[in-house]
Amino acid sequence: MEETLEARLERLEDLEAIRALLADYRRYLDGKDFRAYASLFAREGEFIAGEGDAIRASGPEAIFALVDGMRGTLLTDQGGDDVHVAVNEVIELAGDRATANSTWVYLIRGEGDVPEVSKIGHYEDELIREDGRWKFLRRRAPMDIPTF
Amino acid sequence: MADDPTLIARLQRLEDLAEIERLFYEYRRHLDARDMHAYSRLFCTDGEWTGRTGSAVGPDGIQAMLEANLSPNPAPPGATSWHIVSNPLIDLDGDSATASTTWSLIRRADGDEPKVVLLGHYDDVLAREDGRWKFKRRRAHIDIPHQPA
Q: Which chain B residues have a beta carbon less than 8 Å from that of A9?
């Protein structure tokens, strides 16, 4: 059956909304606005990272506490001293769900005040439309270099 | 609305742009995963790849060339690579298109650190084959470091 124009348009809108979600994620993260960051996760949303997926939290409140606690350790204390460059997105839509794969590069203000490529990894995402907005149902952020 | 040919054409343009951009990221994903088969299927039946590794035509030829020239990924944390693909510019012309993108290659350096080792760009000719956008011709250029003529 021929897909309706409206359905085709909605696919493009969904792709764009998901790209905006991925961009908002890194914007709030690097801006140290961890409340706004946590609000990008679904009510049951999960964040998973670290060696053996040991760093994890479920739900916006717990995710806020987890990421806020990374200040000065996994993240720089001050905004402007680090940036996540999110690239290479491949998004698969399936109605009110979607999956996405992308690459992250973590740059920091290095010694001598020069930008330094500190880490690289990737994101494996499960996304959900919740209350009419696309959100992270599960974001796994494994690091690829350096090795854990 | 459903029968408006102008709207259909405008929508089709956006769909084509989205599919072609996605093709660029699938390309680097299969390449970095060293999935040479999936990578080679992104090319047209007579699709051509040209770059430092050589030149080859058709999915089977491209797969064979890559398998001969690129070592597979060793077990983690082996020397693996990540292509960062950016700045896509796409010009559509019906069932064909031209495009350019920039790429950088990050490798695991001594000391288990990420290091940017190459910068370059792609020049592409694309074609719709059996309803899917594929590479008709991809030229991979290295800009840094200088390449001997």
A: 11
Q: What is the pTM of this model?
A: 0.94
Does residue A91 belong to the interface with chain B, where contact is any CB pair within 8 Å?
yes
- What is the distance in angstroms between the Cα of B132 and the nearest Cα belonging to chain A? 16
At A76, which CATH number?
Answer: 3.10.450.50
**pLDDT digits over A88-110, tens only?**
999 999 999 999 999 999 999 99
| Closest by CA position to B126, among listed B95, B88, B147, B148 | B95
- Domain span at A109: 5-145
ipTM of the prediction? 0.92
What are A115's two structure tokens? 């930008």
B114/B105 Cα distance (integer angstroms): 10
Q: Does A23 touch chain B (CB under 8 A)?
A: no
Closest approach of chain B CAs to the CA of A61, in angstroms?
33
